[in-house]
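re: the backbone from monday

yeah here it is again, tokenized this time
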């Protein structure tokens, strides 16, 4: 089992910055990627950014050049720096961790509790 605890988020005006942090605990040795998803009201949850254990990154097109995902000094912590925020970035942001299992055909996915990010125009 992996437990994810998020911090950060809040409210900011358009053009401002916020950062999110996520700390993983428990059986973290299975984790091969951590990332952030978001879900706006009435929309499906979408991947925002991901960071693999071999330091490959992935960003959703709408946030490229504005958001940066990094690993903390503790390899089980990831941070999402969000700059030049837009009202469309308003959503609940969820930390995510994918874990290998004994069966190579299956992974376990873990989620944080979510943190609200609100960007006003």
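seq for it, each position gets an aa:
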């Amino acid at each position: 089992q992996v437990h994810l605890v998020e911090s950060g988020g809040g409210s900011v005006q358009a053009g401002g910055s916020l950062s999110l942090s996520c700390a993983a605990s428990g059986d973290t040795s299975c984790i091969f990627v951590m990332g952030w998803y978001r879900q706006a009201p009435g929309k499906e949850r979408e991947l925002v950014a991901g960071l693999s254990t071999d330091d490959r990154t992935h960003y959703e097109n709408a946030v490229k050049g504005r958001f940066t995902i990094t690993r903390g000094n503790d390899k089980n912590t990831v941070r999402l720096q969000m700059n030049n925020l837009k009202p469309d970035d308003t959503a609940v942001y969820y930390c995510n961790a994918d874990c290998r299992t004994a069966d190579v055909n299956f992974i376990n996915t873990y989620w944080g509790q979510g943190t609200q990010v609100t960007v006003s125009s």
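The first strand starts at residue 2 and ends at 8. Residues 8 and 20 are 5 Å apart (CA to CA).
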